[in-house]
UniProtKB/TrEMBL annotation:
Family that this chain belongs to: Belongs to the short-chain dehydrogenases/reductases (SDR) family.
UniProt KW keywords: Oxidoreductase
Lineage: Bacteria, Bacillati, Actinomycetota, Actinomycetes, Kitasatosporales
Domain Ketoreductase: residue ranges: 7-185
Pfam families in the cross-refs: adh_short_C2
The name this protein goes by in its record: SDR family oxidoreductase
Entry superkingdom: Bacteria
Membrane-spanning intervals of the chain: none
GO molecular function: oxidoreductase activity
């Protein structure tokens, strides 16, 4: 039996990249995993199949985030497959690379609608479903610590996530629910296709004290710890998962 046998988890944006790595890790640990996706049904089905091939249990649910009623739509789909929740991983998000002077209101609204507003209301509507002793893990970014002006709006959304994490941890403590955030650095996913350029990759490797970019499992293993019994005394924390990026800065 795995450490999470009998538990039900939901990973938003769980079909690709870091989200897929987290979904597969929780599945290996025994949880039944809801794999949320916005549009790529094929990727979601592949993630479910991978979890099942490893002996786990999973189901896919679709809901487009950043639209009116997105949280309610997500939970309506979830409720078709499960009657409660033990682990919520708020991983879904979008990026935006633009200097402050070049950021449009449309871009700003979209990134905050998905990265902050959707996360807030997904979490709000999770609370009646989340069993006492449960876990919430939010995905943040190392950019709340490391300044990159071209990613200012994105970093600002994750600063809001860090603050929300702290407030939720205090509010949900009496129910035995832990709430933490994990803040990755550069992770090798299809969202970071620029890593295919050898010079860009060499630069990115140099940001970490370990001399490499991160892999989805590097983040997933931290989430797995927080989701399990070992994380029971950790709450209200944002855990740096950048591989020691910019420690000497």
């Amino acid at each position: 039996m795995g450490a999470l046998t009998g538990k039900t988890a939901l990973v938003t944006g769980g079909s690709r990249g870091i989200g897929r790595g987290i979904a597969e890790r929780l599945g290996r640990d025994g949880a039944r995993v809801g794999v949320h996706y916005g549009s790529d049904e094929t990727a979601a089905k592949e993630t479910v199949a991978a979890i099942e091939a490893a002996g786990g249990s999973a189901f896919a649910i679709r809901a487009r985030l950043g639209e009116p009623g997105d949280a309610a739509a997500l939970w309506a789909e979830f409720d078709k497959h499960a009657d409660g929740l033990d682990i919520l991983v708020n991983n879904a998000g979008v990026g935006l690379q633009a200097e402050v002077a070049d950021t449009t209101e449309e871009d700003y609204d979209r990134i905050f609608d998905i990265n902050v507003k959707a996360l807030f209301f997904i979490t709000q509507q999770a609370l009646p479903r989340l069993r006492d002793g449960g876990r919430i893990v939010n995905l943040s970014t190392g950019l709340t610590r490391i300044a990159m002006p071209g990613l200012a709006a994105y970093a600002a959304t994750k600063g809001a996530v860090d603050t929300l994490t702290l407030s939720l941890a205090e509010g949900l403590g009496p129910r035995g629910i832990t709430v933490n955030a994990v803040a990755p650095g550069v992770i090798e996913t299809d969202m970071n296709a620029w890593l295919a350029d050898p010079q860009a990759r060499e630069m990115a490797n140099g940001w970490s004290t370990f001399g490499r970019v991160g892999q989805p499992e590097d983040v997933a293993d931290i989430v797995g710890f927080l989701a399990g019994a070992g994380g029971r005394w950790v709450t209200g924390q944002t855990i740096d998962a950048t591989g020691g990026s910019s420690l000497g800065a």
